[in-house]
Every structure is written in C-alpha cells, then in structure tokens.
Design brief:
By secondary structure, the protein is of the alpha+beta class. It is 20% helix and 36% strand. It has one helix and four strands, in the order αββββ. A four-stranded antiparallel β-sheet has the order 1-2-3-4, with no helix packed on it.
C-alpha cells in the first residue's frame, strides 16, 4: 500500500504541475516502461521475499488521464503484463 501511495502522490504532483512530460517517479519504485509491451509500465517496490512488482498503463477516462493497474505479484507477472 505504501508503494501505491507514493505513485499516487507523484502522479497528482505531475498533474498539478501541468507538465507534458512523464511524471517524476520516486526512484525507489524503479518504474520503467516494458520493452515487450509498449504502453505498459512496471514498478518494483521489493526485490526480497516476498517479491513486490506491478504493471500499469495510462488510460483516458472522460478526458482525464488515469492509471489502470494491470498485474500485481512477483516476477511471474511479466509473462502476461
């Protein structure tokens, strides 16, 4: 839940800034785009047991950009992000 709060705060700050660039994500979440799935992003909040990873994408809801969470789990989520 802490990782979700961090990404939400960073995203809200990005929207408030009016920037057209990608949000500046907290470095400890290790957020990056997935090469095998364009438009899908991954984040890792724990590399130790239990493994903590998630994938998400940006979507449009009534003209507003939003985050849709796709998969949450361990390294296995990358088989079908």
């Amino acid at each position: 839940m802490e990782a979700v709060r961090k990404i939400n705060v960073a995203y809200e700050q990005h929207v408030a800034s009016g920037s057209a660039d990608h949000p500046k994500w907290p470095a400890n979440l290790r957020i990056k785009g997935l090469q095998a799935a364009p438009g899908v992003w991954e984040m890792t909040w724990s590399l130790a047991g239990p493994d903590g990873r998630a994938t998400f994408e940006f979507i449009d809801i009534d003209g507003e950009l939003a985050i849709r969470w796709r998969r949450i789990g361990g390294h296995e989520i990358f088989k079908s992000p």
